[in-house]
């Protein structure tokens, strides 16, 4: 099996105290050149208060672990103070119903809420010990999502790490993930909304399926482009993460849309690409949902071995999925986060 995918350690470079362009913080001067209504928080209590308040930009102190379950119910920017350095961490230990937002580390909710998250690590620390000795595993209960994007809300995730053992990233609204890392195990990128991931690292922690999507609601779909799919690094990689043990997607229900473009697949990916394992008897109906790929590469991609009974690539209009603009119907202003008022 290929070695675990490791993101470049940001500490290898010299830290630059720069946030959002000209916004800076120093011990002597405090915040300078930052958008109006910016707040700097150094504890979990301060973060919870800031999210409940009216600050437009919430800056997190580098190297601090903010323990708790946090909810953003209005438009704002949530960012680490350094573009390189020891990123701040939002963390909780929550083993519960993986289909509930109640135990997620960060929930973004509210009609028309628009949140930009940058230079942060978000994790759920509930591990896989509850599954040990279970055969088959009970995947209805386990580690809750690191990030939950609720219906009606938007999230733009940049330079961020999302870690959990189960259901890491749940999107029921719309989300754009860029230059980030997403780790999880078994059906861990999921939802009913619209999700576009690009230039990112998708790192399974164990065998099973990565994406399971319900496209019967609000034209839901997921696109993963220009990324890599390779094993999580120790100590997160399970022993069952071996060559051919991971599938890109499986049907949650018959209506499912999962598109993969220009992505490199390590040998842990089964060259069939798609799993026929349904939920309560569901299957991929090519008239209602699609599994499709274009310009894949790596040891995990062998064109002759792709499961053609599940694959719809020959009939897909990939122009609908090749960019954020196309995928979100040219409604992309939210991807840069809420409008900021500068001094």
TrEMBL record:
Record's keyword annotation contains Lyase: yes
Do you know which InterPro entries this protein is assigned to? Pectin_lyas_fold, Pectin_lyase_fold/virulence, Pectinesterase_cat
Residue span(s) of domain Pectinesterase catalytic: 146-275
**Catalytic class of the enzyme:** hydrolase
Assigned keywords, A-Z: Aspartyl esterase, Hydrolase, Lyase
Gene3D superfamilies, per database record: Single-stranded right-handed beta-helix, Pectin lyase-like (2.160.20.10)
GO terms, molecular function: lyase activity; pectinesterase activity
Q: In which pathway does it act?
A: Glycan metabolism; pectin degradation; 2-dehydro-3-deoxy-D-gluconate from pectin: step 1/5
Any idea what this protein is called? pectinesterase
Q: Which organism is it from?
A: Ceraceosorus bombacis
